[in-house]
From TrEMBL:
InterPro entries: ClpS, ClpS_core, Ribosomal_bL12_C/ClpS-like. It comes from Mameliella alba. Residues 19-98 form the Adaptor protein ClpS core domain. GO terms for biological process: protein catabolic process; proteolysis. Residues 1-15 are annotated as: Disordered. Involved in the modulation of the specificity of the ClpAP-mediated ATP-dependent protein degradation. This is ATP-dependent Clp protease adapter protein ClpS. Binds to the N-terminal domain of the chaperone ClpA. GO terms for molecular function: peptidase activity.
Amino acid sequence: PDDGEGDAGIAVKTKPRTKRPPLYKVLLLNDDYTPMEFVVHVLERFFGMTHAQAFEVMLTVHKKGVAVVGVFSHEIAETKVGQVMDFARRHQHPLQCTMEKE
Ligand code: TYC
């Protein structure tokens, strides 16, 4: 514990640092088989996008290969990835969703 005095009794200031939790980008990956409408539905359902937003983001992934679909705390990001992977697997689509530290 810092007594605020250093070894020679000289006042030494330590800045109060409030640590923000790290954020994680959730990424959606393109593939050749998942139907476009399914991806649009995923983005509406799990990421709260409107149909127009979801369609736009789906097209970005389709054309560029990958897109960030949201930025969340570690716990929320993990939950989203799990929900998407689970939903895709249940419908037998190869859709991939991952997360990475921002
Ligand atoms: N490339 C897919 C197709 O042509 C559509 C697609 C878009 C798949 C986005 C995955 O994350 C994805 N049917």
